[in-house]
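Write out this protein's structure.
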Amino acid sequence: MASPVSDPQYIPVSGCAVRISDDKRNQFTMQESPSEPGVYRVHIDNQYLTPGKSFKIDIITPDGSAIESDFDRMPICPEVGEVYYEIEEIISELTGETDRGIRFYTDLDAGDIQSRFFKWDVTETWEYQVDYPREWYYDGTVHHIFPPDYSRKVCWSTAGIKEIYTLSTSNLDANRYTRFPLNFVSSKTSRLIYGYSLLIDQSALSEEAYSYWDQMRINSTGLGGLYEKQPLSIAGNLHNTEDPDVEVLGFFGASSVKSKRIFVSNVHGLVIEFVGYCTPVPLKYGFSELSPFDYPAWLMGDEDTYYKILLSNDCVDCLYYGGTNIKPDFWPY
């Protein structure tokens, strides 16, 4: 369900009957994930997923509303071209400050593939580390972990890039494009210190799907200034078949996808400006400064000095930042 712009929320709808159909009258019933309310999945065998076929979706909500999409044709997707990066400086349009980092690019060579419309979804993963292992802590009594616990010193974080990347080659002589810009990674973050990976999912789209996503891209890049254009009114391909006056947001698309992953470490010529978040705090009056709300209070030092310096969670626990301390299967370092 949609939520107000002033209070954005994710509002899943459980208990729907969801079915995908193709233009050969084959039907595929989706099942709701038991662990993810409102997420519906189905495995469709490859024999039905031939590029050139069209697909649509039908949804019956628990309150009886019937939602149907138009058919969307699935085109062939070319292989992802070369993915690379260049050191760049950008100037913030909001603050005027200069930021130095790397910009990723990809090349497209779709040859004689019929589709001229493309979209890229980008997911980043990076390694980060905290400054200290967990060794000394106080919770009314001093505890010493020996050997020191390094299990939460190294973590990995994964996040989808929110920008929308679309491209049409319909006005170009050839179905190819070089140096298509993707995301920028600042040297002021921790992303480029230990290792960084970018997963690029390239989709070939129908013209209708491209029009929808390109308008979404235009709406999402506005700065909201005094002379900024009003957001586009974007029409999707979903309809309430019982009450056409009820607006249904979104687009159901069928697209083939190709993927490529790139790894980056030790960028030559780029100085990392990230200074970290950990700031040890001297305890001038010892443990009397601490309350139960601080427990466990992590400490830095040895047997003679552990009571002098307090470490916050962001100094000793990489999970504090929301990542995982389980190394991804694809991580090479």
